[in-house]
Amino acid sequence: MQSYTNIHSRLSWLLLAFLAFAACKSGPKPPDVSNISVNVRPERFDSALFTLDTNHLQPGLQQLHAAYPMFLPVYMTDIMNLGAYSDSSQQILQQLHLFLTNKDFRQLQTAVIQKFGNLDQQKKELAQAFKFTKYYFPAFKTPKVITFISGIANYGAITLDTILGIGLDMYMGEDFPPYHMIEDLPDYMIRRFSPEYITTNCMQVLEQQMYPAGREGGHLLSQMIDAGRQQYFLDKVLPTTPDTIKLGYTNAQLKWCYDNEQMIWQFFIQNNLLYNTDWQEISHFMGDGPATQGMPEGSPGKIGNFIGWQIVKKYMEKHTELSLQQLMEIKDQMQIFNEAKYRPK
């Protein structure tokens, strides 16, 4: 039997650990959004598509077009790459027939239905995220949510005018065997092909739709700050989602970033990278990957997102009077950098 002293010592240590964890998570309490009304009713385009009669495709396709007049042409032409859409196009009808009668694609759709027979969890998460978005951006309109499959073509979430599309076949879980049969899908990407990433990916593409300017071009520092604003946006509209999910990092990678924050910043300064405009150089630090080129072992990809996020958080600590919308509408990224006075220690 353990002595009272040992037990008391362990309890004290656990209490200190809990308080330390709570301190790391401290911050402004999320606003109460319970009175904000949103309506999220995902429409199962994927199911509707696979119920078409393949022996009489044209009338079924015309009915599907009537139900999804904006989404169907984009799905056929851009997502599935079947050609220029027309419900009377013989090429479209032939290609669609091949797609719908392909054994592998039908098995994929069956697996999607088995995993996402209902979308209750996703509806709940999206509704809460939309409430927070409407709180911070009163003009925000709840998008129409449409689900589809792309044949594992890496379309996880897309926006099209007032439509938010979710490619459910990209969230089957990292153990889903078909992912590992595709050569150009690396493990670091497959790790994120899980349902818990759906809402984060949806809010990322919605943010990009709301604030598309400045996402390309410019120097590395400006791109880092734009990426940091996206991460800060996600913090606000997804206040209970772990930072690892919002950044796409593992726990170890996020810890590495915090442990080495000063070294990362010094790396950018010493190598004169902050004002570099070479897109290939910039992609080393802003692009996805298993690690960041030039960084020590343990670094994640997209290290610029992490640093940009820290800069934006430091800026907002100094400007508590600013709303999230005001932050997102700042045109000059250098204003954010200069006033943040970011100096990691």
Concise account of the structure shown:
With 345 residues, the protein is mostly helical. It has helices spanning 4-24, 45-50, 57-67, 71-79, 90-101, 103-115, 120-136, 187-190, 198-210, 220-237, 243-247, 251-259, 261-270, 279-286, 303-318, 324-328, 333-340; strands spanning 43-44, 144-148, 157-160, 163-167.
Descriptive report:
This protein is mainly alpha-helical. About 55% of the residues lie in helices and about 5% in strands. It contains 17 helices and four strands. The protein has helices spanning about 5-25, 45-50, 55-65, 70-80, 90-100, 105-115, 120-135, 185-190, 200-210, 220-235, 245, 250-260, 260-270, 280-285, 305-320, 325-330, 335-340, and strands at about 45, 145-150, 155-160, 165. The protein has a four-stranded mixed sheet. A hairpin with a 2-residue loop joins strand 3 and strand 4 (about 165). Helix 15 (about 305-320) packs across helix 17 (about 335-340). The radius of gyration is 23 Å and the shape is globular. Residues about 1-25 have low confidence and may be disordered.
